[in-house]
Design brief:
single chain, 123 residues, Transcription Regulator spoIIAA, five-stranded mixed beta sheet, 42% helix
Length: 123
């Protein structure tokens, strides 16, 4: 099943709800690029992702490829802050994404609840 993204402007942040399945590095790049472009278009730097119904069928190599590509484009200088409620079905790859992006200077953190994610995101 392909994925879909619903974006809601919450005044102080953007809420992204992703549903479906991201199957490879190309789809992961497409998804991550779309959310950053939308944030820039709307003038937001604080992004909350609810990915509880999104399945990631990507490899660690895919994650490294995308995080290095973002770092090479100086994405950390955009000042974006990412709070992510990860899919419970993908704990290993979700943790690896957090580690990989954080190691490349992204303000990226995973959470189990929206309450905790918002507390960190808006602090």
């Amino acid at each position: 099943m392909p994925y879909s993204i619903v974006t809601t402007d919450m005044k102080d942040y953007l809420l992204y709800v992703t549903d479906g399945n991201i199957q490879n590095a190309d789809e992961f790049w497409e998804w991550s690029t779309a959310v950053v472009i939308k944030a820039q278009d709307l003038g937001h730097t604080r992004l909350l992702f609810d990915n509880r119904t999104c399945s990631l069928e990507i490899t660690q190599h895919d994650v490294i490829t995308i995080s290095e590509r973002w770092a090479g484009m100086n994405a950390p200088t955009l000042g974006l802050r990412y709070a992510v409620i990860s899919s419970r079905g993908n704990p290993e790859i979700s943790k690896f994404i957090e580690t990989s992006f954080t190691n490349r200077s992204a303000a990226y953190k995973r959470f189990d609840s929206q309450k905790d994610a918002l507390e960190w995101l808006l602090s």
